[in-house]
Automatic annotation (TrEMBL):
Top-level taxon of the source organism: Bacteria
Compartment(s) where it occurs, according to its Swiss-Prot or TrEMBL record: Cytoplasm
Source organism of this protein record: Zinderia insecticola (strain CARI)
Residue stretches of each CXXCXGXG motif repeat: 154-161, 168-175, 190-197, 204-211
Positions with a binding annotation for Zn(2+) 1: 154, 157, 204, 207
UniProt protein name: Chaperone protein DnaJ
Gene (UniProt): dnaJ
Function per UniProt: Participates actively in the response to hyperosmotic and heat shock by preventing the aggregation of stress-denatured proteins and by disaggregating proteins, also in an autonomous, DnaK-independent fashion. Unfolded proteins bind initially to DnaJ; upon interaction with the DnaJ-bound protein, DnaK hydrolyzes its bound ATP, resulting in the formation of a stable complex. GrpE releases ADP from DnaK; ATP binding to DnaK triggers the release of the substrate protein, thus completing the reaction cycle.
Length: 357
């Protein structure tokens, strides 16, 4: 195994600083990069060697090991594809550059980066709201207001997130970078300013560079008669703002209907229990049934049995966006008195004797 001198490969002395290593690698990597030397095996090998040297010397722990024990053969690991392009090499350098003076700028560019990723993921601008209503409100409809938080354009910066710019110090305002002038004259879009030649100096203090602000608004919600549990009402353009372009997402209000202790609902039909006296069960007669539409007068047929189900046609729930009404089913419950006085008991016993004859 041939011992490699990483310092020699990078043309450096063993006391080279991190900056020296970076600079030298950058210079050599540009020169021997396979993209620039197609079908040149020699250049490819050289590039691998440079890369290996850089990977070892740029990492403080690896460098310490190398200085102490010498090179380790990493060849197996180096037969990877050259996925790294020139811009990768450069962005690696520039993104490491920390400049206190440009703290705000970095913040800004991170934000831009994040924003770009969001855009790629197709920014979700729709909002969802869960609204609990009573069965009565579901049956009769409801006109109500809800308060929601949404993201709107920051009017202070008009959605730009910033108010003032300075000339980019990297490209000197040209928006382009000249790379390796002595060998090649490659012009490349400036990373720092993204080719604009200028950089944000001050972030908008209202939105902190976001260009968007959280706002609260009241929205009128009209719930149609007969709405069912889990149905969603779509309110157009009431979501978050889209990419600072004054286009808004939609708001979806999902309906949750609270349980009612007297009525059960199945689709458009309603089910309930009614209690009647045993006298009425025997002789029949009028009763008032309280429903969501008010009281309904109903005739109980004589001789009705316990648990008989009475159907009141079209007294159920209206179907949304239709004139169809479901039915109301009432299960009859005959009340048996438990607190008869002596006199009543006497009369009942007499009655039993008559009925048993
Ligand atoms: Zn620039
Ligand atoms: Zn702002």
């Amino acid at each position: 195994m041939k011992k490699k001198d990483y310092y020699e490969i990078l043309g450096l002395s063993s006391n080279a600083s991190f900056e020296d290593i970076k600079m030298s690698y950058r210079k050599l990597a540009m020169k021997y990069h396979p993209d620039r030397n197609p079908n040149n095996k020699e250049a490819e090998d050289k590039f691998k060697e440079i890369k290996e040297a850089y990977e070892n010397l740029s990492d403080p722990i690896k460098r310490k090991n190398y200085d102490k024990y010498g090179s380790v053969n990493y060849n197996d690991n180096l037969n990877n594809n050259f996925n790294e392009t020139f811009s990768d090499i450069f962005s690696e350098f520039f993104s490491n550059e920390e400049d206190e003076e440009y703290e705000n700028i970095n913040k800004w560019s991170n934000f831009r980066k994040k924003k770009k990723n969001n855009d790629d993921l197709n920014e979700n601008i729709d909002l969802y709201y869960k609204l609990k209503i009573t069965l009565n409100e579901a049956i009769n409809g409801l006109n109500t207001y809800i308060e929601i938080y949404y993201l709107d354009i920051c009017l202070n910066c008009n959605g730009t997130g910033s108010k003032s710019y300075i000339k980019c110090n990297l490209c000197k305002g040209k928006g382009k970078l000249n790379i390796q002038k002595s060998f090649f004259n490659i012009k490349q879009k400036c990373y720092k300013c993204n080719g604009k030649g200028k950089i944000v100096r001050l972030l908008c203090k209202f939105c902190n560079g976001d260009g968007k602000l959280k706002k609260k608004k009241k929205i009128n919600i009209k719930i149609p008669k007969g709405i069912e549990n889990g149905m969603k009402i779509k309110i157009y353009n009431s979501g978050n703002v889209y990419k600072n372009r004054k286009i808004y997402g939609n708001l979806y209000v999902e309906i949750f209907i609270k349980n009612n202790i007297f009525f059960k609902r199945i689709k458009n039909d309603l089910f309930c229990k009614i209690s009647i006296s045993y006298y009425k069960a025997i002789f029949g007669g009028k009763i008032n049934i309280s429903t969501f539409y008010g009281k309904i007068l109903f005739y109980i047929p004589k001789g009705i049995q316990n648990n008989t189900i009475l159907k009141l046609k079209n007294k159920g729930i209206k179907k949304v966006n239709s004139n169809f009404y479901g039915d109301l089913y009432c299960s009859v419950f005959i009340k048996i008195p438990i607190d008869l006085n002596k006199f009543q008991k006497k009369k009942l016993i007499k009655l039993k004797k008559i009925l048993d004859k």
